[in-house]
Every structure is written in structure tokens, then in C-alpha cells.
Amino acid sequence: MSFQDSLAKLNSPVKDLVQSVAQKEYALEGKTDEDKDEVVKWIDKVAKGDVIKAENFKSLDATLVPQTYIATNYLTAADVAMYGALHPVISKLPPQEHFSHPSVTRYFDHIQSSPLVRESADSTSSFPVVSFDFSNAPKLERPAEAPKKKEKAPKDANAPSTSAAAANPEAKSTDAEGSKKEKKEKKEKNKDKAVAGADAGAKKDGKKAGGKNAPAADEGEPVPSMIDLRVGHILDVQKHPDADGLYIEQIDLGEETGPRTVVSGLVNYIPIEQMRDKYLVAVCNLKPASMRGVKSFAMVLCATSKEGKEGGIELVQPPANSKPGDRVYFEGAEFENATPLSQLNPKKKIFETIQPGFITLDSREAAWVNPATKSVHRIRTKAAVCVAPTLVGASLS
């Protein structure tokens, strides 16, 4: 079935909206034959009507958890059609039900905020903006915090919970209850983070996991391959309500658990308009840290001018057409096949030891320069090298 045939199946005003956006974006029907087939498939699903029924939102929500767009890794006619078809359903939902299916809500708001879609939608009265109170949205970090609930359940010191016992089999029964609970909680957190990190790494680079160079732990001298770098995509960014210099971002890192909450001190250096919808490189295995009451689960990798912050700060950019979760690694036989640590131990200062060697070359390419051998190891995905937009000789952090 051709693209035009699939569009003909859509009802107005959805069809009119798709055609209006298509006039402004040449790649709306897909950039490759495979993408075009996916776009047609999803438009056909939208035209049939079942996929956007409220009772099917659970299935649609599950589909959208790891995805920014429905058919490809960029905006297509399938997304415009899906948005148009969802609009009458979502616009009628009471506010308390907006986050019953959080991935659908996140996706809908992302598409309606796209400048291409918004311009065409505003030219008609059929698709007014639907407002969402994201301050009342479920916290995206809840899955990672779930083990805490299990630790609170047992009240009897002599009857530990099953999950706690499994996570901490070597805990001494003679410990005081307070100390015992604290140790269990720390081990439970570390276990969850290790599993999450290992799962993500296996999914993104399964062929290379377990290679000879893969570090099993953080013994020995710190090396850059211990750092977990991935391509991220900013789905939403807002100013921190309690800190003038901080942004709170929701960043898609290709994980099934959904985007991570990340706090960045970039308000005074990068305008919020330049943060929205951006692809970037994120450091994903730092220990989560609270910043003015909001827990941050990753760090945005930025280039800072050699003249200092006042000289400019830029987001390090992954190659064009990168996807959220794509592996970012350091060139060199000793690093390329290594598996990052699930979480960097802050006491060992691994990132702090490696970071001074991070720099942008004369080509603006991001790299790590070995301080001992002066060898240069560019930072890249399998497609190409990551770069800073304009800064040369910049430090990366």
C-alpha cells in the first residue's frame, strides 16, 4: 500500500492535519523503504480506530515506553496521524486520568509541542493544545525506588522480608535493627542499579558483553571505559522550582523503564529553547544525587570553553540519526569492547580521575587524552564521533 493510499483512509480533520504538516517536511512519509513501510502500517492502524480507543491505551502505553516516536526514531506522518486521532480522546479525559497511561501522555504532549505539528494544528480549531499538570505526574524514578517499600514492611527484627534476605544474605543476625535495615537498604539499591545497568548494556551491546576486556569490577587504575556513556533525547525540560540555575529534564535513554529525571546546572548558559528536543550524550552510571530536592539519575555531558564557563557551554552532540540508548564509547582496542561498570563508586573517584583528560580537538571532536601516553581516544558511537558545536580545546564534564 502506498503512502497516499494510507492517508486516504484517514478521516478529516486528521487527514487534513497530516497533509498540512507533510507540505512542510519532506521526510514525513519516512526516509528509508523500511521506515516508509512502518509509517504506512501505523497510519493504517490509526485509520482502523482500534489502537486509539481508551480501552486499548494500556497496550499503546506499553508500546511507547521505550520509544519517542511511534514508527521510527524521528517525526513522521504516523505520529501526526496518531496525535490527531488521540486528540478527541485525551482532551476529554479528566485531569486526574491524564497520567493513568504516562507514556501515552508523554508521547501526545511531545508531538503536540513539535513546531511543525503545532503550526498546522493552530491553523484549525480541531486541535487546541491540551494542558497537562506535570507537577502531579507520577515520579519516573519510582521503579528504582521500589525496594525501599519492601524494607519498611517487616517490623519484627527476627522476621526479615524475603526480598531483604535475598539481597543481603550475609547480614549478621546480631546487628542492631537500625544498622541492619540501613545495610539492607544500601545493598538493595546497589543490586537494583547493577541489574538495571547490566540489562541496559546487554540489550544495547549484547554481542560485546562478556568480552575479554570487560571489567567485572572497579579494581585497578580507573580507565575511561568504566564510564557508561549513552545517547539521550530530551523529552521535556523545565526550570527547577527551587533553584534559579537548574533545569529538570526528562531524558529518554532507550530504557524500558522510561526516561530518567536529570538535573543540570545549565540555565545561565544554554537557553531552554536550545534544550528542548535535543539529542545529547549522558553519563549514566554515576550515583544518583539529590539537587535541591530533586533526585538526578544521570549527567549531561557538556563542553566548557577553555576560557571558562563565561566563554560558553555546549551540549556534546552525538552523530546525526542517533537513537536514544545508543552506546557511546572510547576508541582503542583496550576500550571499545569493554563493558562499563553498573555504577561508579564515588569513593574511588573514577570519573573525577578520568575527567581531566576529556577535551574537544581542533576538529571539535570529543576525546579523552591519556595523561601518561598522550594517546588520543575519540568518543563515538558505532556511526561516527561525537562533537561540540563550536568549541575547540574545551573541557568535557
From TrEMBL:
Region called Disordered, residue ranges: 138-223
UniProt cross-references to PROSITE patterns, sorted A to Z: GST_CTER, TRBD
Keyword GTP-binding tagged: no
GO MF, one example: tRNA binding
Gene Ontology CC: methionyl glutamyl tRNA synthetase complex
Comp. bias regions, Low complexity: 156-171
InterPro entries: Arc1-like_N, Glutathione-S-Trfase_C-like, Glutathione-S-Trfase_C_sf, NA-bd_OB-fold, tRNA-bd_dom, Tyrosine-tRNA_ligase_regulator
Basic and acidic residues: compositionally biased ranges: 139-148, 172-194
Domain TRNA-binding as annotated: residue spans: 223-329
Domain of life from the UniProt record: Eukaryota
Membrane-spanning parts: none
RNA-binding keyword on record: yes
Keywords on record: RNA-binding, tRNA-binding
Residue ranges occupied by any GST C-terminal domain in the UniProt entry: 1-132
Protein name, as recorded: Nucleic acid-binding protein
Biological source species: Tetrapyrgos nigripes
